Amino acid sequence: MPREILLNAFHMNCIGHQSHGLWTHPRDTARHYNTLGYWTDLAKTLERGLFDGLFLADVLGVYDVYGNSPDAALRNATQVPVNDPLMLVPAMAMVTEHLGFGVTCTLSYEPPYTFARRMSTLDHLTNGRIGWNIVTGYLNSAAQGMGEGGQKGHDTRYEMAEDYMQVVYKLWEGSWEDDAVVEDRQTGVFADPAKVHRVSHDGPFYQLDAMHLCEPSPQRTPLLYQAGASPKGREFAARNAECLFIASTSKEWIKDYVDDMRARAVEAGRQPDDLKIFAICTPIIGETRAAAEEKLAEYRDYVRTEGALTQISGAMGIDLAEFDLDTPVSVLADRKTDATQTAIETLARASGNPNWTIRQMGEFAGVGGRTPIFAGSGSDVAEEIINWVDETGIDGFNLAYAVMPETFDDFVDHVVPELQARDRYKTAYKQGSMREKLFGRARLADNHPASAVRIGSNLQGE
């Protein structure tokens, strides 16, 4: 039986996420990103479309690699200004019942003790609808903003992440027993002290001796997302992630990635279906394919190539302003940096043209970023989504937008019914938490590393 397709919307608490310059389009409302109504309207639209979640990207720091200056980022609103994504969640949860929220938080600059409390708080307030996209960061400007001279090396950041995860697992899973809260009005005892435990950790990067500040939330540990594609990132994800987010325009590369990650999960003692894998696309929908192509051409008239290249420079750690715009992208393939290591590889193969230039790369990435674009009628886009799922083994998509809220309105109105008609998309939400909806269980699987630090296990750090 064909698998039910999963869908997240992909957004960020800023004006210009991945479609650079499109905020100037007359139908775009992204300028209102700093109002609650903008986000609650989006949440209601997504729940109407039975979306599994809203995946909120985030980045600490400003894109200042291009031209060795933040000026291009500021001119083009390239993910700056950018507000805190976590602050949006309670308002959106208030106007929805089922929609999940995957929030990107950079662990490199966030003490695990306070971060664990913030995520537990959100898990309580959303009734178990919060997920965490685990990232280590990639901008030097973020490290400098935190008082450091520069970011640590790529592999070191993942070593820190492994240590960090052990700390938050202990807090979420190993501090409060399930029945620690007795709430006895007769005796006046709220929590049984014998069932609330201090946890200790003495790792290479983090130390802790404390109890968790929050009573057990519906999921305890939030649903765990990860988007690493480098060798270190894949190792980390195979052990820790439940949902993976990948970006590529190549079906072949995605299939190889899916096969590799499911095999790595087995090597890590987990099951292949312990991972839900989301690719990314940008849907452009019209009454016909020709109408959609015309809409896409109209969108491209608003693209700011400089804005796209500013983001790409930051992701790669390479100043593209140093190159002539007609330089082939292939010349970048051997550059190694401590930013996003796979960004260069992803961009170099995006068009399948080895002579693709930096200019063409910027123009392409101006709508939806480094994503395949599915342009067509609702039926066309539904078929394209189904084909990618069936041919690559992914579980679904994160949907990027071109114009807000037009992209998501069009998708909900015209693509969702087509997917439902083909029996590839749900017609109603399942009950339960975010994890229960996706995996059929309320807690992390017993084969997940966090299970080793649950109540009753050895909670002492190594």
Would you kindly provide a written description of the structure presented here, covering whatever features stand out?
By secondary structure, the protein is of the alpha/beta class. The chain has one domain: TIM Barrel (Alpha-Beta Barrel), CATH 3.20.20. It is 37% helix and 14% strand. It has 15 helices and 13 strands. The strands form three sheets. An eight-stranded parallel β-barrel has the order 1-2-3-4-9-10-11-13, surrounded by six helices. It has a two-stranded antiparallel ribbon with strand order 5-6. Strands 7-8 form a two-stranded antiparallel ribbon. The protein starts with 5 loop residues before the first strand and ends in a 23-residue tail after the last helix. Residues 458-462 have low confidence and may be disordered.
